[in-house]
């Protein structure tokens, strides 16, 4: 085990406790992670981090995603874990695409707005439209207006 | 590494990454590796700076404490290196060797603009082409630059005792385009100064004809290697003292440069006919 892997393994221990704590807040929305769910999310997190060539510290981004998305009308208890996994993958992918020029909180806020708005709960829509626009805007330094957030010419109003 | 140390490193890495990312929770692995390498460099630098008797004291400090002390030390080295660059510039030899002048006036200054002591302390931005008589090895970051500048300053000090036109004549022996070569200035100066000293000629003249070069080489090649090296080092340090170099460190550097020269004796021509 190299030094970075050792550090990574130590950081993973922290994550489990952090995710279990989220239940206290999300139960008001009917969302709860079981021990098995937490284990699955941790496994998924490792795979996603490997795929995207990233490393996390502290509680990681999953806790932030849970707190941000748990009140979404499009998240249901039966697909809660799957949606979290999809959101996490999307988050990391676009974090890399945006060359880390956008902060976690800004990216999550943007994701939530598209997910609850024009995306109507579709992570696929979120990734293929709004976030593409966002990363292009960050990379090329072009302004991103509210009207662009829905994707190629779409506006949130079109979907309302 | 003990479990306790691993946990302390974990805490330190987390603290550094939080600071680096401004509150974000992840970063590309290359970034984390760089920040970790930087922290390790600071801790190792701190440990190296301690005298042996204090090593025990260091072992009782936490990783975080050693890192903080190491970071302070590296910042101090940056200031020292800036001062050394000023001194090097003030003692530059009027020799038109491009690599020598470019490194000092254009290659090293960007180091101080680009150096990130907080998160990339082990890296060396800037461009250093000019080779020293004895290269700096085993150091990185500002410790490398500081040592490089120290050595360059000693080389300037040594060479400034010799007339520039005599130094240029030595360098001209390398051929018509000597100004463009990646060639150290002190090396041929030291070689011929040693040769002159061995033959009881005034070392400041630096002049050796073909016969004298052969005589100087014969004085050394006929001896066992360790003895030849000792003779050359003694001659080199004697010249250095005569031009005002008295410090232990600077004389140590002259020894190092002379030893490097002697590693070539019998294999290549060390002394220069001029």
Descriptive overview:
Chain A is mostly helical and 160 residues long. Chain A has 7 helices and 1 strand; from the N terminus they run ααβααααα. Chain A is 65% helix and 2% strand. The radius of gyration of chain A is 16 Å and the shape is globular. Chain A starts with a helix and ends with a helix. Chain B has 12 helices and 1 strand. The longest helix of chain B is centred in the N-terminal third of the chain and has 28 residues, at 63-90. The A-B interface holds A 3-4, 6-7, 10-11, 49, 53-61, 64, 92, 95-96, 100, 103-105 and B 1, 6-7, 9-10, 13-14, 17-18, 21-33, 36. β1 (54-56) of chain A pairs antiparallel with β1 (26-28) of chain B.
Taking the sheet with the most strands of chain A, its summary is:
none
Number of strands of chain A: 1
The arrangement of helices and strands of chain A along the chain is HHEHHHHH
Tell me, briefly, the overall form of chain B: elongated
Structure summary, number of beta strands of chain B: 1
Mean pLDDT of chain B: 93
Please describe the biggest sheet of chain B, giving its number of strands, its sense, and whether it closes into a barrel. Answer: none
The helix/strand series of chain B, from N terminus to C terminus, equals HEHHHHHHHHHHH
Q: How helical, in percent, are the residues of chain A?
A: 55-70%
Gyration radius of chain A, rounded = 16 Å
Strand content of chain B is under 5%
Spatial separation of the terminal alpha carbons of chain B: 58 Å
* Count of DSSP-assigned helices of chain A: 7
Low-confidence stretches of chain B: none
Question: What fraction of the residues of chain A are assigned to beta strands by DSSP?
Answer: under 5%
């Amino acid at each position: 085990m190299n030094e970075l892997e050792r550090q990574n393994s130590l950081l993973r221990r922290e994550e489990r406790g952090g995710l279990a704590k989220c239940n206290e807040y999300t139960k008001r929305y009917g969302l709860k992670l079981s021990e098995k769910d937490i284990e699955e999310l941790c496994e998924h997190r490792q795979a996603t981090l490997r795929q995207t060539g990233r490393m996390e510290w502290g509680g990681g981004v999953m806790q932030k995603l849970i707190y941000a998305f748990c009140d979404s009308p499009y998240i249901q208890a039966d697909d809660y874990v799957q949606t979290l996994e999809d959101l996490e993958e999307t988050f990391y992918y676009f974090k890399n695409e945006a060359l880390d020029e956008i902060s976690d909180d800004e990216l999550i806020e943007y994701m939530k707005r598209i997910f609850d708005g024009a995306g109507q709960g579709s992570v696929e829509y979120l990734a293929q439209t709004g976030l593409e626009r966002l990363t292009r805007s960050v990379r090329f330094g072009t302004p991103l207006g509210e009207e662009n957030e829905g994707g190629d010419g779409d506006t949130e109003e079109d979907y309302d | 590494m003990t479990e306790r140390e691993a946990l302390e490193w974990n805490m330190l890495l987390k603290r550094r990454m939080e600071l680096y990312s401004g509150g974000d929770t992840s970063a590309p692995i290359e970034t984390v590796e760089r920040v970790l390498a930087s922290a390790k460099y600071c801790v190792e630098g701190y440990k190296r700076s301690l005298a042996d008797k204090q090593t025990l004291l260091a072992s009782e400090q936490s990783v975080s404490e050693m890192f903080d002390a190491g970071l302070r030390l590296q910042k101090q080295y940056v200031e020292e290196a800036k001062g050394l660059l000023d001194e090097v510039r003030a003692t530059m030899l009027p020799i038109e060797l491009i690599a020598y002048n470019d490194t000092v006036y254009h290659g090293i200054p960007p180091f101080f603009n680009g150096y990130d002591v907080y998160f990339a302390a082990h890296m060396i931005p800037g461009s250093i082409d000019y080779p020293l008589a004895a290269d700096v090895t085993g150091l990185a970051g500002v410790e490398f630059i500081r040592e490089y500048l120290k050595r360059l300053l000693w080389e300037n000090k040594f060479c400034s005792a010799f007339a520039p036109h005599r130094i240029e004549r030595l360098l001209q022996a390398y051929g018509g385009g000597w100004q463009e070569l990646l060639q150290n200035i002190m090396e041929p100066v030291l070689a011929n100064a040693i040769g002159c000293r061995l033959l009881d000629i005034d070392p400041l003249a630096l002049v050796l004809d073909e016969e004298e070069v052969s005589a100087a080489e014969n004085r050394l090649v006929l001896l066992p290697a360790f003895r030849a090296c000792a003779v050359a080092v003694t001659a080199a340090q004697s010249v250095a003292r005569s031009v005002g170099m008295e410090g232990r460190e600077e004389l140590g550097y002259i020894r190092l440069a002379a030893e490097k020269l002697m590693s070539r004796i019998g294999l290549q021509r060390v002394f220069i006919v001029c």
